[in-house]
Amino acid sequence: MELSYWWILPLAATAVAIAAWLSRRRRPSRNRAIAHGGRLTDLPEYQRALRRHRARLALAVVLGAVFLAATATAAARPAQRSTEQPEIRNRDIVLCLDVSGSMTSTDAAIAGVFQKLAKEFDGERIGMVIFDSSSVQLFPLTDDYDYAAEQLKQATEALDDGAGSFFDGTWNGDGSSLIGDGLATCVQSFPDTEGSAAIPGDSKRSRSVVLATDNFLSGEPIFTLEEAATLAAAKNVKVHALNPADMDYGDQPDQPGTQLRASTEHTGGTYFTLDSPDAVPGIVHKVQETEATSYTAAPQAVVADAPALPLGIAFVAGAGLLVLGWRLEP
Amino acid sequence: MPSLLRRIKSKMFIFAHRRTLSLLDGEYGSVFKGRSLDFDELRAYVPGDEVRDIDWKATARHGSPLVKRYVAVRRHSVLLMMDTGRNLAARSLSGEPKKDVAVHAAGVLGYLASRHGDDIGLLHGDAAGSKYIPPRNGEEHLERLLREVDANAPCTGASNIAEQLDYVLRYLKGRLLIVAVADEFLPDTRTVSLMRRLSARHEVLWLTIRDADLAPEDAEKALDSFDVGTGQGIPMPLAMDATVRAAYAAAMLDRDESRRNIFRTVGIAEEQTTGSEDVLTAVFALLEKHRSGAMSARSSGKDGANAG
What we know:
A: alpha/beta; Rossmann fold; 2 domains; B: alpha/beta; 6-stranded mixed sheet; 45% helix
């Protein structure tokens, strides 16, 4: 609590002092001399009335002082100054779902989890890319959570059914599960942080890709997984991979699971193997937690007028004074 | 130099339109039982003269009542005993300063005495001490006495009429007509005993100047008061309080009653005046009262040894 116009207080004190002095100087003009005041003052009734009167006067003085102090304080504009460090949740998440036949149940689980999460998002942006032999951006990074939730709902239903026009455009390339291309598309759906198109502040947002794939490549991708991972690392994107079918034989680096793990760890992300789609929510939460670094913006000083307390006190004291004045009036 | 006495006289003559001044003279003369065997003159009876002064033979011859006048054996001495303490600075019941009322009362009494040819002295003072001016004749002397009171009252000391009573008893010899002018104090036991002794030794008349009403009826007059004796203030709202006022009224009745009792028991005729307007009425009533009191005392005393 601080006062915007602190100089009001000494001013008010001076005014009160001058008023008191003036009234003191004027006082002796209106009273009369009497003798044998004991005729009245010795009466017990008078003594009682005097005590009551004195108590009332004392109360009036206290209330008046409180009233003056409160109004003077209110006039001095008390303000609440606080430093706020607004916590900004500024994550960008792109769901990167391999929609080859073996992945649909996992994809559905991931879409379902994010559909629920989207309702709680505040400040995050979410986007979705599905890919098979070619990639389709289902919706770009957006903070329109209703829209995202609706899209995710459709995706969940479509992935559960495994049919419909949902997968249109994912078979345009040669082969299937061109994971490197898919990941590259996902990485590209983040806006540039440098150059003319860069949005200020974007570079501060954390970026992650939730990549669901079994890494069974068939075909000739434009980007290999390693190249896509390098691209992601260059754009500061962390790739979190969910592999529902890690069936590596041994620790050789050419095994698909190991490759995926190496790529994700290259980007600073994490790698999970899934035994069943039911484990997806837990893993997604884990990913969320690792990414849930709260970004705090620069401390901001917030000055807000807080006249409620002094004015409330002044109101109560003033009301009390009115009642007392009415009682003191003969 | 404006004369205090002239002012008082002019007020008395205004009064005279309503009640003859000679009536006052009669009353005053009757107070003094100063008679001798030296016949002076016969004069017309004036109401207030004692019936036994009437010369019945002369009255029968003349057809209207005549009163015998004697040359007084000695001049009477009238002593104005006044309390000029701090209390005199306060208001009287009429709202005038009590000092003005006191000066006026002293003037009226002194004028009556001087018309009668008596000497007038003054004793005034406060609790700290008394000042005595011995009795002398003449209006100039009276004027001087009035000026003395007017200039010196109120003194800074507290009021205590007992000091003046004590002074008289201690230092003044010879029988005096003492006219006490004081306010509405309630005598304590010492004062009562002094008053009793005083009334035994001298003729005492007591004129009380009534004090201001502490709980006045009309709110117009209601101001904060302060006690000149103690310096204590009385806030107006308290004096206007209904229960306080009722208690005050009851207490005042009691107080007046006890005052009356005290004056009755010590045998001093007492009369009250609210302000200078009714000083004359009060003086008249006082003289009347004293005379009748003295008469009754005398008749009960079965022709006391000497009348003078």
